[in-house]
């Protein structure tokens, strides 16, 4: 009997180290060695903000830095993501709780009687303890799944923060571009005023007709109405930024300025490094790990569950004498439960887990492809805009020269005002187009910063603590 008991104990210990289900491996995905449009990617020497993850400092704009700081502190979108993280952390702790035994205590008091018996009191106190050894690794797999979900929730916070930061940068760039458009219109308005005065002088001298004066005034009035359109657009952009910062629009404003943020240089990243940095890729990859662990949870339903339990109870007809009562009841022993027939429910549960794993793998691979596409889009945009800006600079210089020549010819009475107006409008459109290109370059730089992962750092101690396997999970074999 002693040999049999020792053998049974050894078998139980061996089973306790067994974990069903496949061990996790990161799914393979097609990652190229380099980007298609990486030629001309502006790189830079090491900067402090690279290590700190404050990528927006590359724009060298203190107002923008302050806006992002305020958004990080008050954004309701981030507050939602952080609440989801706390829930995921609690879910992880809940799963870990199944490693420990459960202790319950109860005290009851009843009064009963009948037609042939006198009424009487009965008081009882009971203490129950139970523990279900993790024979097949169900708890380990569930903890593994919740740990992956917790890491995904942490990455989700980073993704939400990065999306918020990019939205603030792009909104701020649009506000500053509108300020520059206003400056361009005011500069053009000064030129139109000079042209209108010249036209009136020409008309008073009998050189031009009244129609030239009317055309000059019409041109000026059209420009004034465009200034109102800019005011409306700027107000809307300010309101959008206020919402991102988590404040009411009435309490938020940005002082106008003549300067745009600097076009930043961003660190180059290989595709393989990109995949490790992007928070949305991390979220998708942790989703695969979670689904993989849940396959093991589903497989344990085919095997019996062992529960070790014990309880002790006291009974007496008075509460004061309960702990001195002569009636003491106790029980101790194991319980083995196995589902013999369930109409296919366990098989269906396992099939669901496998299908959900396949779905998460496909989602991860698609997320990788989308991340590569985002980088290629941003790089292509920046490369094309850089070449377009050079051509636009030449066009603007030609337009300004043409306007100067036409204006001098008009003073000499050689051309009509229609040619002057045409030349001035061409210069205005060239300046606006050049500003649009700069604005697009700044926004593409923000998109590139987001595409290469922003400030997401996998070496963060908090993330390492979450993602690091527990000691009890190391060296566990699968499909035991």
TrEMBL record:
Any Gene Ontology CC annotation: cell outer membrane
Lineage: superkingdom: Bacteria
Record Gene3D superfamilies: Outer membrane efflux proteins (OEP)
Record keyword Ribonucleoprotein present: no
Coiled-coil ranges from the UniProt annotation: 64-91, 213-240, 372-402
Pfam family, any one: OEP
Membrane topology field: Lipid-anchor
Main location: membrane
Entry-linked InterPro entries: MdtP/NodT-like (IPR010131), OMP_efflux (IPR003423)
Keyword terms of this UniProt record: Coiled coil, Lipoprotein, Membrane, Palmitate, Signal, Transmembrane, Transmembrane beta strand
Signal peptide residues on this chain, from the entry's feature table: 1-21
Gene Ontology molecular function terms on file: efflux transmembrane transporter activity
Subcellular location: Cell outer membrane
Annotated family: Belongs to the outer membrane factor (OMF) (TC 1.B.17) family.
NCBIfam families: outer_NodT (TIGR01845)
Protein name in the entry: RND efflux transporter, outer membrane protein
